[in-house]
Amino acid sequence: MTLEESEEKLLEKAQEEERIYKWIEAANLYTLAINLYLEKKLVERAAECYQNLGYAHSRAADTVDTADEYVNQIKCAVKAYKEAMNLFQQLGNKSMELECEAEMFFSSGFLATSDAEGQKTYRQAIRIFNDASKSYSKVDDKESFARLMCRIASSSYILTSYKINQEEYTQIALQGIESAKKAWEISRKIGNIQILSESLNMERMIGFNSVLFKKNDDVKEEMKEFLEKGLKSLAIIDNLDDHYALNLVCLATGINYCAFGYQFVEDEREQEEYLDKGVELLEKALSFARKTKSKCNILVCLFFIDYFALFSGRINYLQKRILNDIKDCLEFEKIYARTYTNYRSTANVIPALYYTNSSQRSFFTTAQRKIYAEKGIQHVKEAMSAPNYPSIIAWLYQGLILAYSQLTILAESKTTQDEYAQIMLQHAKQAEKFGLKYGGGFPQAGGYTSLYKAHKTLADIAKKKEDRIVHLKKAIDAQKNLNQNAILSRSGAISEQMRLGLLYEELGIITGEATILNQAREVFLHTIKESVGRRYFSYEAASYQYIARIEDRLGNFMLSAENYKKA
């Protein structure tokens, strides 16, 4: 066997290891090949191997089990890309030099220790990827151009997890989505499965986070178009033994099915079908992610499965899996513990929301609810100490308020209760301030949800009638603002409207003012109107029951009886 043959054998073995997701083994083989190429002064082949080595180390980072191993693999990726960049510079290959430099910045972003450092790193990555893509475009290298469009999308996705204002967020997200769309179109034509799956996933991930605070009539059509794109992508890769591509395509398509069904499908039976299909795809995505051994992809799948299970009210389904999912999340959190990344935050989100929501459940003992509230607060703070997307931050604030609300209610002394109440209100005001930075949608509505819950809690514990009235009025104002800004499913919007009616009813009872009770009745008449055409019988029945209760209090006993009968 010649030296050249031994090098080729090493590369073949490295590619075999890659196919079975043994990235560390592949990296070791690339290192051996590099040494042989450098001995023979085959600089171009060594440069290419260094680029492959960088990629192998970056993928290996997703498969390791400890924080030290994770950081080491990322550092090795950065070093390999830097070596590749230098060698391509010697060769005068500007396009490849720029691409490797951009990859170096992309990988080094996972080592950032602050928001400012992370932002700077990914801005540089986007700029250099863009410069490199122009070089490939000039020579009509479609595959390389598509690959870099996809990398711009990935960099944009990560950059939007940092603390940037909405105007810039929108600009970066749009750039990312447009880049992903270009990459998908080209990859479909040239048959590059990796670019096709990665670009589809990035388009959905960026779009999902953006749509949660984008009030736009075109969103429904965009999501319908994406459903078709997802199904086309599934048809292309369905019979392939590429677990990585299948994970990404099933994930993106599953997210879209769930989001579209929850947000836009009004018929409850049809909505269930969309959610069933979406969750089925997400479960497939999780299965494929486990086969690729990618911790970050497993984490993302767990997050979206639990997210949509919670939002769609699939409590039994969630209860069967949530404790195992939390166990996995907390194991992943240890791996990302030394980083300032979205993954570190996301690993704490599901535990945070599980514990904060569990603290409200009356079937738990008081001691258990306090423990859950405290655990939830701990995980919320961990999640908020690293980058995440505005809608998730707003969600975490809500969890924080739920936990402090329970600690306030369950406090054993007036002093302790006052302390928790003050902390709760302070966080609620922070949530409102955070939400006001965004133009409507989930972040802003989330701020108002937090404010509503805080003032409703303060009203519930108030001893003086005057204090209770003040806090109920503030809760009503927050609820009205929430209803104006929230992006909800139709049933979700009706539920929030009913909550407003109940607040008016409570305030009317305390003040004894018939005009306020009449306002409550008008709200419930509106929810009946919204429910009838959509066959939301449970909402309609509850609204009639609430109206009957109000009529009874107003002395309209015949009307009360009629409404009870309708209910």
What does this structure look like?
- There is one protein chain.
- By secondary structure, the chain is mainly α.
- It has a domain at 231-313.
- 83% of the residues lie in helices and 0% in strands.
- The chain has helices at 3-19, 23-39, 43-60, 67-91, 94-108, 115-138, 142-159, 166-190, 193-211, 219-237, 243-264, 268-292, 295-311, 315-335, 342-358, 366-383, 390-410, 414-435, 441-461, 465-485, 490-511, 514-532, 537-553, 557-566.
- The longest helix is centred in the N-terminal third of the chain and has 25 residues, at 67-91.
Short descriptors:
single chain, TPR-like_helical_dom_sf, MalT-like TPR region domain-containing protein
Topology:
Layout: H1 3-19, H2 23-39, H3 43-60, H4 67-91, H5 94-108, H6 115-138, H7 142-159, H8 166-190, H9 193-211, H10 219-237, H11 243-264, H12 268-292, H13 295-311, H14 315-335, H15 342-358, H16 366-383, H17 390-410, H18 414-435, H19 441-461, H20 465-485, H21 490-511, H22 514-532, H23 537-553, H24 557-566
Query: Outline, from the CA principal axes?
Result: elongated
Q: What count of helical segments does DSSP give?
A: 24
Order of helices and strands: HHHHHHHHHHHHHHHHHHHHHHHH
Largest sheet: none
Q: Which structural class should the secondary elements be placed in?
A: mainly alpha
Rg from Cα: 27 Å
User: Which percent bin holds the helix content?
Assistant: over 70%
Average pLDDT taken over every residue? 92
Low-confidence stretches: none
Number of strands: 0
Q: What percent strand?
A: under 5%
Distance between the termini: 86 Å
InterPro entries: TPR-like_helical_dom_sf (IPR011990)
Pfam families: SNAP
Protein name: MalT-like TPR region domain-containing protein
